[in-house]
Structure of Band 7 domain-containing protein:
Amino acid sequence: MKSQQDSGSNKVHPQRNGQENQYNAMIDTSGEGTEYGCCGWALLILSMIIIVLTFPVAICMCVKVVQEYERAVIFRLGRLAKGGAKGPGIFFVIPCTDEYRKVDLRTVSFDVPPQEILTKDSVTIAVDAVVYYRVQDATMSIANVENADGATRLLAQTTLRNMLGTKSLSEVLTDREHISSGMQSTLDEATDPWGIKVERVEIKDVRLPVQLQRAMAAEAEAARDARAKVIAAEGEMNASRKLKEAADVMSESPNSMQLRYLQTLTSISAEKNSTIIFPLPIDMISNMLKK
């Protein structure tokens, strides 16, 4: 009867059972509630007796030192020792029953190899990046993942491909900062159960196919030529307007035409040493014709 009730409860709450199984699959990194059993305690007592009998020699094997930037994760009889990671400084291990692994807490950087990516607008590009991360929890980085560094590298490659696959070429070329921040948040969330903190992600280089580079260069050159022609046309239009305004002003005063005429002759004579024939002014000719 009890088994039927249990099976019925499992059918009613499948999601709850899945969550409990996932929770049980996670390793307890606190080290609390560790029980070694009779054999374990017997081995521990025997190891302590051996250490006491060989005290001058065994003390060299029991004392270990870790640096300021390191932590030591101790496994006692295959279980995590109480108190979490040790260090920095001196800590003691039992040679026969304890095993420890050092973890470096400094920031580590690695290059993501160039990835062949097909963008949203069907353009094949090669993109590489650099990732900066550090171990935030030494115990989780040892107990929850086999190789934290290798797993982070592989995850960075797949995240780079997945994220850039949803972007167009123009977005990849112009919005690198947004892409880098999105990759950083995605990697940081995925590596949090491993005790790893992703601090920064940077897109290093985006390499385009040679034919596409030539096409983009031709397009940019054509755009520059068109812009130059438009600017030149606008300059000629503005100059013609100014000349028309100057002509209107000079037409109101005949003396200004004569002054402009003399100024032009002066500028010509200053540039080149040549003989200049001065024709009679128009006013003198018109007066003579009237007479």
In short: The chain has a mean pLDDT of 78. The beta strands are 63-66, 70-76, 79-80, 89-92, 98-104, 108-118, 124-135, 196-207. The CA atoms of residues 155 and 190 lie 8 Å apart.
